[in-house]
Every structure is written in C-alpha cells, then in structure tokens.
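Bit of a strange request maybe. I'm writing a small parser for structure token strings and I need a real example to test against, not something I typed by hand. Could someone generate the tokens for this chain?
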Amino acid sequence: MNTENDIEKEDFEVCDKQTEGWFEGTYYASYEDLFAILGEPSKGDSYKVSTEWIIRDNNNGDVWSLYDYKETNRYDLSLPSVESFRKKSSHGWHIGGTSSRFQDLIAWLNSKINELNK
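Reply from user aminoacidic:
Good idea to test on real output. This should exercise your parser:
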C-alpha cells in the first residue's frame, strides 16, 4: 500500500467507466473539496444518487464510485435539494466498488484536501 507521501496525482483519475459493485465504506468530505479535486460529478441515477464520481486507480485498475445515497429531494421530497445538499460542510460519501482496497484512494483524497486547506 502507498503512503500519503508516495501517492502521485496520476495514480487516480476520474473516468466514465460505470462500476458494478457494492458499498465498501464511507468517506467524509465537503462537496466543495471533492469538486475542487475531482471536478464536475455525474448525476448518478438522478433518483437515489444525485452526485457521483467514478474514480480509477491507475496502479491496479480498481474502479470505485464516490456518491451520495438517498440524500436529496430527487429521492424524497422532504430531503434537501441537490443544491442545498452540496452546500453542507461535510457529508459521509459512499464508496462503492468490487474491491475493498480503497485505502490508497482515501489517502490520496486526504492529501489533496490537505493541500487545498493549507
């Protein structure tokens, strides 16, 4: 496993390859920070998922999805709008995929958020 100091930007990239898989874990961050690192998200399925990034590990080919789940009024009208949801200071984003080896992704995201907040 890489450490935060070993991870290079090109180790991970946002891609459009849809993942099949299951819930692997949770990552806490603001939409603002993730947007700054990963760019414009996809709209997910526009029902249960309104914000999603597909991320590939270029070292081993693993692909994960980082997404909200049942968090906006697209799923339930009593929940906040997508715009309001994205203004939250932090959120527990779901990590989905077919591999539990997402620790490098978390380390990479943490290092990028630390760079943003210097």
